[in-house]
Amino acid sequence: MLWDIDGTLLSSGGAVARTFLDAVEAICGVRPSPVGLDFGGRLDPEIAAMLVSAVAGRPEQVADVLAHFESLVASRQDALREHVRLLPGVLDLVSELAAADVVQTVVTGNLETVGRFKLDAADLVPPIDLSLGGFGASGVDRTAVAQIALDRLAAAGWRGSPDTCWVVGDTPRDLACARALGLRCALVATGRHTAEALSALGADLVLSGLTEAATLRAAWFS
Ligand SMILES: [Mg+2]
Fold it and tell me: What does the angle CA 172 – CA 217 – CA 158 come to, to the nearest 5 degrees?
């Protein structure tokens, strides 16, 4: 099970996103307006490039923004932890899969330190095994990030075929990376996209939320 993080497993209530804007402001001297920019399902390095561009910063500032973002998240972790909320149904489903010995990791646009902070704050590690995951700096796009997770799973001895592996996410980009690699995909409408909007995309499953995961359970355990 390859979990997306934001909008799928948990929400940080915008607090981590605001920290990203703080990092851009500190490095570039101008606070970007995120209005009108489409970040859903993008990798943190892509988001940094979009934000630096939005304030007419220089491309070489992107790496500095990412490094400063990581250091701000680390220095603010006590305050940020208060904002991290597991989404409904997540704990039950993750626990049920763990009890069935399903390998669970992440395919996320988050930088590894940031994704690890969020999942630790939500108390999901274990059963989610972050050593097998793909993160925002693992590849040039989300498909490459998912491929890294598959490579790590294979190196750890996982011998399943791609079509027994599910990506669970909340954006069209989660579906696109699954399709590119022959993985199955469940989309949940707990992020910014409605179930109606997600239903038009052709995922294997569309769920209103992980409290409604009976079809995912059935597909997984069949
Ligand atoms: Mg997401």
Answer: 80
